[in-house]
Each structure stands twice: as structure tokens, then as C-alpha cells.
Amino acid sequence: MITRYPALFMVLTDYCSAALAWAAFYYFRKIQIEQAEFSTNPTFWLGSIVIPLFWILLYYIIGTYQNVIRQHRFKILSQTFTATLTGSIGLFFALLLDDDIYSYQFYYKSILGLFAIHFICTIIPRYILTSYFVRRIQTRKVGFKTLLIGGSEKAVQIYEELEALPKSMGNSFVGFVNLNGIDTVLEEKLPYFGHVKQIEQVIREQEIEEVIIALDRSEHEKLKGIISILSGYPVRIKLIPDMYDIISGSVRMNNIFGALLLEVNSEFMPFWQQALKRIFDIVLSLIAFILLIPLYIVLSIAVLTSSKGPIFFLQERVGKDGIPFKIIKFRTMYTDAESKGPQLSSSNDPRITPVGRIMRKLRLDEFPQFINVIKGDMSLVGPRPERQFYIDQIVQKEPQFMQLTKVRPGITSWGQVKYGYAENVDQMLQRMKYDLLYLKNMSLALDFKIMLYTILIVVKAKGK
């Protein structure tokens, strides 16, 4: 049960630890610092309930609940120390600085007491829980479904090395795919799932969590295409060491328990920025949705009176990790716009209604997508989501496009700001370059810059 929902157990443990720590600190503060009688008044109970929520939010922001079962003890120790120090300083300035004191030494005792009590109450249960996860993985009671790519002697060697380790790295091999499709020695040890061209089907059907690529040097030219395909799925990608010379700047060493592998780093921005980005998305979208209610009413009336059909237009798009979702927009076209199949719009598209043309120019048709952001389907800033019909065409020309599905798609994007709407697949490829550039430089600062540019486009009505 614990290993099925590790993040939930960590959150519950942290909440109870934070509540205990605050109660202990409250007692310490009353008795040792204020030298007053301890009593459980409403302030005590309110703090014991609300303060732990602050700690949970802080832990989430620094990435404590990301891949909990893969955490190791040193990392959890350093994260706990950093979070406790940051949170103690924050609570001191927010709640304790205005206390009536006789000496500044009371301030030092307060912050040191808060830090020490919270750290001890938090690290002990965390260490026990993390040790339990680590032990379950090392003893092969818990593993991550792993697919091996390659059938050469090198693939056999890395498989045997990982299986022979006295302490497992967590790899539970389910099978392998090969580049040449011929019989290999590896078939005697693992199920053969076919050619590497079938890898997407294998990942979906076998629910693969990790992929290890073991190719001969003669096959290295195919590595870029394989990684591009894998980038569209929520899997960890690891390479054997001699591939380092062809992957620059996107791998990190992963030497655990004697097995040397290079892990392709799929994180485009630090997790704390990802967490803040998600918080900003929700808060700003809620504010925008509430403030724009009068505009929604006006636009709804305009859409209804412009042509027959529904107010909103729902269309399936591909989101993060290739998961489809329904994007919500104000309808800007006549209801039979795609009776002949999927079509991209153009500047003089006769399918667009007169009101719809104005709305597209001002980007007003995108406003309902704040609902998608609140639901978690989209972000305020990110690569524009496309339909699977067009993704299939784009990937044939440029497999790198799949990297765009590693993050939440956005209402606006760098490609949308610089290029605008695409009218064909070639223009999609041109816009893709800007979105790939955004991925390589993702930051909160860049997101705010893109949002400002988007606002200027809407105000100046320069949308394409």
C-alpha cells in the first residue's frame, strides 16, 4: 500500500510531523522564552492545523514529492535541511518578529528552537520512510518496468551486469526491442517485442517506466531519432557510457551501486520553478476567469448571433506526455467547417465567421482556455497543442517535435508570439523552432516576457 501511493504517505507523514513540531515549538516558546503558562487556546489549535499546510506547500515547491519512491537518503536529508531553514526564517518574519521581548536573545532562541524542533520531528519519519523505499528497491521487491533497446553483445552485457548487482537499481526488465530484427543471444534471456519501430506500441502496452539504450557504435546515427520518439512519453532514458560523446549537454552521470549509466535529463527547468509556474497558472487563470466574466457574456452573445451553432468549440488536442484532452475555444467558424476532414485555417479562410475573424485577430477565441489551465490540461505559456492528425505528419519530417509534448501546452507560446497561426505543416515546422528554443531556455522570467508580448499583440490587434 505504501509503495503504491508513496507521495500520499509522504504528505501525510510530513503534515503530522509539522503539526507535532509546531505544537512542541509553541510549548517551548511559552515555557522557555515567554516564561508563561502553557495553555491550548484557539491560537494553538489554529496554528497546529494551518502551519503544516504552509510546510506542505514549501516541500512541494522544492520537489520533495516528485518521484518519492526514487528518493535516496542523502537527498531527503539535504532537502529537509534546506526546507526547514527556509521555512523557519519565513515563519519567524511572518509570525514571531512582532513579539514583545526583553532581549534580542529571545529572537535567536525562537528561530533556533523552531528550526531544531521542526527538523528533528520531520527528518526521523522521513528517513524511516525513505529507507523503507530504498530497501524495497534494492531487494527487488519493487521495480520499474524497463525496456532494453538493442540486441548486441553490449546489450547482453549491460543486462547481465544490472541483474547481477547485489543491490538492485530498480530495473525490472520486461523485454527488449532490436534495430535489425534478427535473432540475438538476448532472446534467451528476455522477451523480444520486435523492431524498434514498434517501440511506441510497446511502451503503451507494457506501461514502460524506464528505457536503457544499448547500441553498437555502428548504430549511433539512429540514436537521435530514438530519443526523439521516447521524448514524447513519460519514461526515463538511460544510455551506456560510450554514447556520451554524441549527446552533449543533456545527460547526467548516474553511477549507483556499481552500474555506470548516463541518464538523459528531460527536465527543462528546475522543479521549484515548475511548481511555482503551476501555482501562477492556477492563480492567474482564476483571477482572469473571474474578471473576464462580463466579456465572456458579450462574446457568447456575439458568437450566437453570428451564425448557427454552439458557443464553444471543443477539439481533441495532444497534451503533456502525449495524453489527449479537449481544448475549449469560442467558436469562430461555421459548424460544418471540417466536414471534409481536418484542415488548417488561413488568412482568408471562408469557413471563419465575420465575428470569428475579429476574435482571432484579438486572440479572444482563446480566452476560455483558462478553464483548461485550471483543470491542468494546459499552462499559460507553453508550446501550442496540436491534433494527432498533424503531429503524425510533422514527426515524419522532424522527430524532434515530440520533445514539445514533454511539457504542458500553453494558451500562448514563443512560437505563437513570433510566428502566429500556422496555415500548413511547413509553417508548423517553422513555428516549432521557436517552441524548441523556448524549451531549451524555459524559466519563469521568459514566461512573463512571453505573456507581456502576448498582451501587446492583443492590445494592438496584431495577431496572425
Automatic annotation (TrEMBL):
Its main location: membrane. InterPro entries: Bact_transf, EPS_sugar_tfrase. Keywords: Membrane, Transferase, Transmembrane, Transmembrane helix. It is a multi-pass membrane protein. Residues 277-459 form the Bacterial sugar transferase domain. The keyword Cytoplasm does not apply. The chain crosses the membrane at residues 7-28, 43-62, 74-95, 107-129, 279-304. NCBIfam families: EPS_sugtrans (TIGR03025). This is Bacterial sugar transferase domain-containing protein. The lineage of its organism: Bacteria, Pseudomonadati, Bacteroidota, Flavobacteriia, Flavobacteriales.
